[in-house]
User: What shape does this take?
Amino acid sequence: MKIGVKSPGYAAATMAMVVALSACASVDMEQRLQKLEDRAAIEQLIFGEYPRALDGRDWKAYAATFAREGVLVQGTQETKGPAAIEEQFSRPRTPPTPSAAAAVPATGAAPPREAPIASKHVISNFKIISLTPDRAETTAYWETVSTRSTGTVIAGAGHYNDTLIKEDGQWKFLRREIVNPSRGPAPATAAAAPASPAAPAP
Assistant: This one.
């Protein structure tokens, strides 16, 4: 029985094919790993950095979650850029002065609403709509959980529509719209954001 001997050219071609397949597999694996890393970074931004800055009223850290051209949408109001966003939330707010009539509640009227001792923002039902190496579209639900001396209640709820970009290697909000049903219909162009500056949402 005669055993054929493969030519050097055949061996070289086979080796080249093996190397090419290995390279393709390596590139595919790198892309898969990068996608997982991007998803983890986006989740850290949405579930961690943003709500913690909001609850801690750390407006510098809050504004830093937005890209240089980032826009925060709250109802019909849009604020563009981290500096403007930080300034908007840092601005002192004077509580409205009640009228003399309002200062004395009518008999049987409910007592004035107590300011919350603490509020936390809870994010859920997160979904990535699209994800590329440098851009993502996501949405998520938010709830504001407020604790008062009388107990803990859900003070507000809605959802976010987000457009994110990778800027200087970090994922940031290019557009975040806070959709808050209790404050009327959302604008036609949706993208999620927090509640109003006076009472920020998640």
Observations:
- Strands lie at 66-74, 77-80, 118-132, 135-148, 151-167, 170-179.
- The first strand starts at residue 66 and ends at 74.
- Residues 8-55 form the longest helix (48 residues).
